[in-house]
Amino acid sequence: MHCPFCRHSDSRVIDSRTSDDGLSIRRRRQCPECGGRFTTTETASLNVIKRSGVMEPFSREKVISGVRKACQGRPVTEADLAILAQRVEEAVRQTGVSQLDTNEIGLAILGPLRDLDEVAFLRFASVYQAFDSLEDFEAAITDLRADHSEQEPADR
């Protein structure tokens, strides 16, 4: 790390602490040449490879905006969407890879969205999984009903 004051090529870490819910590390550094102190932030990069081949950093905001459309008119709050985006980011980071394609992000969205709102889940899945017919919707609804029937005895 170069000193921002004198451009010396070395610095010494004098303090480290996590920030952003443990997603980044804040380091306080000191230059051995000029004695200047400065702060750096380190984050693990997570990149998304779009269908066009373009790579861009993962964005919770993009997850929220995509899911917001499916949740339009549903009883889903902005806080619910923020929590969903956090869950999606945590899930994709747990894969341990630094580059994911958009398909993997979409798959990571489906589970938390299904838990949040089933109608929004069907809307998102119909676009994401390119439903072509009523049979596609019926199959998805059958899966949802099967999950409900499996969960009912456990809830009692």
Describe this structure in words.
- With 156 residues, the protein is α+β, with helices and mostly antiparallel strands.
- It has 2 domains: 32 residues; 105 residues, no CATH class.
- It is built from 5 helices and 6 strands; from the N terminus they run βββββααβααα.
- The strands form 2 sheets. The protein has a 3-stranded antiparallel beta sheet with strand order 1-2-3, with no helix packed on it.
- The radius of gyration is 22 Å and the shape is elongated.
- The termini are far apart.
- The mean pLDDT is 90.
Unreliable runs: none
Strand content: 15-25%
Count of folded domains: 2
Structural class: alpha+beta
Number of separate helices: 5
As a whole number of angstroms, the C-alpha radius of gyration is 22 Å
Helix fraction?
A: 40-55%
Written as H for each helix and E for each strand, in order along the chain, the element string is EEEEEHHEHHH
Described by strand count, sense and barrel closure, the largest sheet is:
3 strands, antiparallel
Strand order of the largest sheet: 1-2-3
Query: What's the total number of strands?
Result: 6
Mean model confidence by pLDDT: 90
Q: How would you sum up the global shape?
A: elongated
Distance between the termini: 59 Å
Family: Belongs to the NrdR family.
GO biological process, one term: negative regulation of DNA-templated transcription
Protein name: Transcriptional repressor NrdR
Keywords: ATP-binding, DNA-binding, Metal-binding, Nucleotide-binding, Repressor, Transcription, Transcription regulation, Zinc, Zinc-finger
